[in-house]
Amino acid sequence: MAGPRTFAGIIPVVTKEGLGRRGMAFGSLLAEWQSLAGDFLGNNSVPGRLVFPRGRREGAVLYVHAYGAVTLTLQHTAPLVIERINSFFGYPAVAELKISQIQRPVPPGTPPRFRRLSAAETRAIEAAAHTVPDEALARTLARFGIALASRIRDDTPPGPTPKPCFLTPLEKPRWKL
User: Fold this and answer.
1) Is 145 among the domain residues?
2) Whole-model pTM above 0.70?
3) Mean pLDDT of all residues in the chain?
4) 72 and 138 housed in the same domain
5) What is the distance between the alpha carbons of residues 77 and 75, in angstroms, rounded to a whole number?
């Protein structure tokens, strides 16, 4: 019977199947992405894959998926992100970022958010809809207008929105070499 094993000794065995051929470099990049990219970029982007040239372990292309307009921010700060990644690894592991824009995933079963309209708002929508001569069409337009007006247009989850904080050379990383 073997004695107790350290957690650090189990990590490569457990992550090997999940990471596959991507290796431990990609796993450590995933684990440290938040501190490498900064809070704003780390919350709004995710590394997709790390592709090294055949037979080499440096000069890789890092594919990053970013949400919405963060793609542009990441594109402009790419040299700084690459510099941070390479200083984290201790050698020029990444040479280029390939950035793709993706839509933020919506958790399944999340119902759309609505607000209750006031009586004045409802009457105004019904009055505008009843200018149509066809009564059935007017009722349908009124229901449609009420549904549109009551829907909350902002698709972000409730709560404080993160302030954009762009990477600067003076910003200190959270990890230690």
Assistant:
1) yes
2) no
3) 79
4) no
5) 6
